[in-house]
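PROTEIN–LIGAND DATA SHEET

This sheet pairs a single protein chain with one bound small molecule, nicotinamide-adenine-dinucleotide, given as SMILES. Inputs appear in the order they were entered. The predicted three-dimensional arrangement of chain and ligand is reported afterwards as a token string under its own label.
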Amino acid sequence: MDVLPLALDVRRHDDVAAAAVRVRAWKGHIDILINNAGGGIPGRPTDILQRAPEDIEALIGINLTGALFCCQEVGRIMVEQRRGKIINIASIAGLVGRDRGMYHRTGLAQQPVDYAAAKAGVIGLTLDMAAYLAPFGVYVNCISPGGFERGQPQAFVQAYSERTALGRMGRDGIDIKAAALFLASAASDYVTGHNLVLDGGFVLWH
Ligand SMILES: NC(=O)c1ccc[n+]([C@@H]2O[C@H](COP(=O)([O-])OP(=O)(O)OC[C@H]3O[C@@H](n4cnc5c(N)ncnc54)[C@H](O)[C@@H]3O)[C@@H](O)[C@H]2O)c1
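PREDICTION REPORTED AS:
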């Protein structure tokens, strides 16, 4: 498989625009965009009442503005091509409020409110971008994962699993792949503006 490695900061519009041009020049077209960059900023206070404004802006820049810039610049190319599939990675944080007790009790830093705001924004941008791009043959969908197991304290994994209908956290490197493949492929050619919630049924109980 050919790979074109490029370094960019998705918060910087110039970086994103330059990367989109380079990727298109590589093979002459762009078929799929997955906006996966995101997450929190480790080591910073996450309680909204103690949170630094610059941390809020940085997190929203990575998780929301970056996705919007990538949709804009790659979307422009896909419109010219009259085809393309965009997949945004949101989160169930954009759908439901958080039980912070589970984080406090198990010693894990809580997710900040700005993360929820950014991911709800990603879901919103998916809907409207899908509406905008549909006439051009360009699809926009998103995936909202629940918590994936990745070295969290065992007490947290257990508490989270007990609150999830399927009784476990997501498996890293396994549970998201088929959903991404579905939304990237012709199998989803009648699906746009969809938010595929991939959380083992976590939000069912909340
Ligand atoms: N892990 C989970 O449980 C979980 C749950 C729900 C949603 N998500 C979302 O899934 C996506 C992937 O999460 P992950 O847990 O694999 O995170 P991760 O931290 O392992 O990966 C995030 C990637 O984003 C990149 N990144 C960060 N800031 C960037 C910037 N400014 N410009 C370009 N790249 C940047 C990082 O280099 C990293 O490769 C994120 O959008 C996250 O919010 C994760």
